[in-house]
Amino acid sequence: RVGLNFIDLMVRQGNIDNPPKTPLVPGFECSGIVEGLGDTAKGFEIGDRVMAFVNYSSWGEVVCTPMEFVYKIPDDMGYPEAAAFPMNFVTAYMMLFEVANLREGMSVLVHSAGGGVGQAVAQLCSTIPDVTVFGTASSFKHEAIKDSITHLIDRNADYVQEVKKVSPDGVDIVLDCLCGENTGKGLGLLKPLGTYILYGSSNMVTGETKSFFSFAKSWWQVEKVNPIKLYEENKVMAGFSLLNLLFKQSRSDQVRAVMDKLLALYSQKKIKPLVDSLWALEEVKEAMQRIHDRGNIGKLILDVEKTPTPLMANDSTETSEAGEEEEEHEGDNGSKERTPFIQ
Ligand SMILES: NC(=O)c1ccc[n+]([C@@H]2O[C@H](COP(=O)([O-])OP(=O)(O)OC[C@H]3O[C@@H](n4cnc5c(N)ncnc54)[C@H](OP(=O)(O)O)[C@@H]3O)[C@@H](O)[C@H]2O)c1
Questions:
Q1: With a threshold of 0.85, does the pTM exceed it?
Q2: Beta bridge partners of 198
Q3: Which residues have any ligand 1 atom within 6 Å of their CB?
């Protein structure tokens, strides 16, 4: 199985730094059975159930990756859950506990709270007593995720005002995957000694084809931060990129230690990946469209064993074209080719 991530959408749209040359097989994580081992490979056997990070190419029936990025799947974890686990939970854990030092009584603001990382953040926050979580998400998701987030805010609302209504002093941790003009707002919401972490740039996915102009426009909207102001206001600003940590900065040992802690929390039934839907490899277009349309609650999984749902004769095969203005679909998947297979 393959975990689909927002970054896959960004890769497809060319919204990342130094995209690899095409032809390209996308994908950064998967789960499955070990089919072959290198001569020097130790610690795994043919037939082992494993999950892994892959530096591209996880969207396939057979995947090859160095052993340092592979982890055994616990007996009670299924393949879809395992494909949904590494990226979301390691990212959420490292940001909360290794960068921001989340402790009892603190408060956290997370964007895209109904998504893969957002739900992992919510679950990990619930492992610490008395943590308040503010989360922004499209309003149709609120009913489904209301038990995991203390204060839900519509993604179109003025979240600064909404947070301040409940907590006039702001929050201890802001997790920003939107970037753009949200940096200033996030920093402004921090309590003294609070931590702002930038870990994504979802706002750069606009549906526009990448051009020098669209890229420059996006970067122009990113707010500039004065370090002297951080010093005067006792604020911490950080960035986090798991893929760079793994594939460019050789920190797989540190990530393995985090995976061990996460698997212990899983075995204690304190965390559990939320799977939105399963899709056949042939349905990847519709699956990506569901993320683009903000329809997912939790993680989308490509299932190589799933047979594609037959196309409906009167269905449109149109997806939104690059360059079109984004429309609000809010989970309305009715005019798509196939409907998601909900587990
Ligand atoms: N730095 C890292 O190491 C790292 C690792 C993993 C993920 N990330 C980042 O974390 C964020 C969440 O990733 P994820 O894989 O868990 O995805 P996700 O949250 O499941 O992504 C889909 C959701 O993002 C929200 N969204 C925000 N801006 C959007 C846009 N322009 N177009 C479509 N949807 C948008 C939508 O939810 P609402 O409409 O409900 O807001 C949508 O349902 C992404 O920015 C991703 O790049 C970073």
A1: yes
A2: 176, 239
A3: 5-7, 87-88, 91, 112, 114-118, 137-138, 141, 155, 177, 199-200, 202-203, 205, 240-242, 291-292, 294, 296
